[in-house]
UniProtKB/TrEMBL annotation:
Subcellular location: Nucleus
Record's function text: Component of the Mediator complex, a coactivator involved in the regulated transcription of nearly all RNA polymerase II-dependent genes. Mediator functions as a bridge to convey information from gene-specific regulatory proteins to the basal RNA polymerase II transcription machinery. Mediator is recruited to promoters by direct interactions with regulatory proteins and serves as a scaffold for the assembly of a functional preinitiation complex with RNA polymerase II and the general transcription factors.
Keyword Lipid biosynthesis: no
UniProt-recorded name of the protein: Mediator of RNA polymerase II transcription subunit 18
InterPro entries given in the database record: Mediator_Med18
Subunit details: Component of the Mediator complex.
Family stated for the protein in its record: Belongs to the Mediator complex subunit 18 family.
GO annotation terms (biological process): regulation of transcription by RNA polymerase II; termination of RNA polymerase II transcription
Chief place where the protein resides: nucleus
Keywords on record: Activator, Nucleus, Transcription, Transcription regulation
Molecular-function annotations in GO: transcription coregulator activity
Superkingdom, taxonomy of origin: Eukaryota
Pfam hit, one: Med18
């Protein structure tokens, strides 16, 4: 069989550190004694970093001297987005942003949250990749409990609306208030390189509204034809 010409592949090898974790998401709701009607209480996340050398904010992991586990507690604020009137000219709409605070905590953080009245919602199983340009990608699978016993992790199941062949992917960069626009533009440019495999779909926690059929149709539509 005659060949039209030689086939080559251009290869650049390297490595990206694999950072894996379990993250337990809590918040106040109307079943909590401390809940105040009409006053929003946003998420707190207890994150167990079990693979990787850095924390969520890029700091070195400091394992407890007694050989315990590395845990972080992270506060997540409400979603915000700049108004259309705040965008200049034909600049693309910025990505949503939210405030966050992350601190190192002890292994009893989950018991501590329960004592304070926070209600356990679901768990995120994730992997994180960090890039030199300040951008981080997290791919997570969210799990809900089949019963009320949060210690029984063997009974975790996929959330009903997440039984699709896809992961929740978040592209983010930590920034300050005055550099939100700069970080937003950087993320937009980075996301272009992931097209058509990354489908932008804002979601609030586990509330993903698109069905499996809709997701599959979008993937087929955006995938390049051979």
């Amino acid at each position: 069989m005659a060949r039209a010409g030689k086939c080559f592949e251009c290869v650049l090898q390297g490595e990206v550190e694999d950072i894996a974790y379990k993250e337990y998401v809590y918040n106040f709701d109307d079943k909590c004694p401390q809940y105040i009607h009409g006053v929003p209480h946003y998420e707190v996340r207890a994150r167990h970093v079990f693979s990787g050398s850095t924390t969520f904010q890029g700091e070195a992991v400091e394992m407890p001297s007694d050989g315990g586990q590395k845990w972080e507690l992270r506060y997540i604020g409400r979603w915000e987005r700049k108004k259309m009137s705040e965008h200049v000219g034909s600049a693309p709409l910025g990505v949503p942003f939210r405030s966050q605070i992350a601190v190192s905590v002890g292994q009893n953080v989950r018991s501590f949250l329960n004592t304070l009245g926070f209600r356990y919602r679901y768990m995120r199983l994730g992997t994180r990749w960090q890039f030199p340009n300040g951008i981080t990608i997290e791919a997570t699978r969210m799990k809900a409990l089949k019963n009320e016993d949060e210690k029984d992790e063997y009974r975790l199941v996929d959330l009903e609306n997440l039984r699709v062949e896809a992961l929740l992917v978040e592209i983010f960069a930590l920034t300050t208030d005055e550099k939100i626009d700069e970080a937003s533009q950087k993320i937009r440019r980075f996301a272009v390189d992931l097209d058509p495999y990354f489908i932008e779909r804002p979601s609030e926690g586990k509330e993903i509204l698109h069905s499996t059929a809709t997701l599959a149709a979008e993937v087929r539509r955006k995938r390049p034809r051979p």
